[in-house]
Amino acid sequence: MKEIYRILDANFNRAREALRVAEDCGRFALNDPAITAIAKYLRSDLQQILEAMPADELIASRDTPGDIGTELTSPTEPTRHTLDDVAIAACKRLTEALRTIEEYSKILAPDRVIDVERMRYDSYTLEQRLVGRLMVVRRFAEVKLYVLVSSSQCTGSLRELVRGVIAGGADVVQLREKPTNDKQLLAMAAQVRDMTDETGRLFIVNDRPDIAAIVGADGVHLGQSDLPIAEARRLLRPGAIVGRSTHSIAQVTAAANEGADYIAVGPIFETTTKDAGPAVGVELLKEAVEICPLPIVAVGGINADNIAQIKASGGKCVAVSSAVCSADNPQAATRTLATAMAAAIA
């Protein structure tokens, strides 16, 4: 029986250590309360299962100096190049350890096997959420031009507008439709989702995580008075993007701590967009870029003539709406902005 105690002791330790690595990534690297909570709950569940075991026997069976495995390692084990590598390795180690605990618990504590099995399935969810968030953060970090589209601003159809901004070089398309009924909004969102899917562009829905979830959008953008980020994520697929509008440094900090994937700062310049509020200036953008590690999106009154000011303030991504949507040729207007942005950040 001592060999079974040794196996279980080693794998309880592996699982506990892997959970700590995953939790720290969700807490400190991603500022994601859901990932942090899942990892914490799993650690608590693991401890409860361990308490059902003969803890003294497990510890007494430990023989680190005599463990032949301490001298063996794979060629890839010491190598980690990115945060993704660390997180993925921790998640794999966790599920492998739980599988071993599940199998050997059938001998030692058969009444807890179902609990370990449930933990293993919850660990797959943790892995999906954690890796999905890391992929989103990496992908959004490459975004330079983010276009907000609205049928009310179209000179033609919404389809023509979206086709034009995609062809013109937009990296992200956000559907910002106010006001309209839910049936119409859903139809428009489905249409834009199809077009962005075909072209590999990110698609964000403004304000409505429910609509974003139904059409399989890449994420949702929330204003200051919209849902808390954690609640919005409950409606979205794992790994979906959640952005937050901010108008002050206090709001930037709050959005980062709340778990936003990116933060919109503005309006930088005066804009005719309804309810945008007074211009905050490039000074706020500069401060936000300096204090916040998340992608910062400059928004409000931006055009080809003032993009250089965004770059000078450290901005790497701009969001535009009327400069494109109200143009006679949205594709040409988007291309002009994309070219100006590329030149500004080169």
Automatic annotation (TrEMBL):
Keyword Protein biosynthesis listed: no
A GO CC annotation given for this chain: cytoplasm
Signal peptide: none
Residue span(s) of domain Thiamine phosphate synthase/TenI: 145-324
Pathway membership, UniProt: Cofactor biosynthesis; thiamine diphosphate biosynthesis; thiamine phosphate from 4-amino-2-methyl-5-diphosphomethylpyrimidine and 4-methyl-5-(2-phosphoethyl)-thiazole: step 1/1
Gene3D superfamilies xrefs: Aldolase class I
Keywords: Magnesium, Metal-binding, Thiamine biosynthesis, Transferase
Catalytic class of the enzyme: transferase
GO MF, one annotated term: thiamine-phosphate diphosphorylase activity
EC number(s) per entry: 2.5.1.3
Required co-factors: Mg(2+)
One Pfam family recorded for the sequence: ThiD2
UniProt-recorded name of the protein: thiamine phosphate synthase
Organism of provenance: marine sediment metagenome
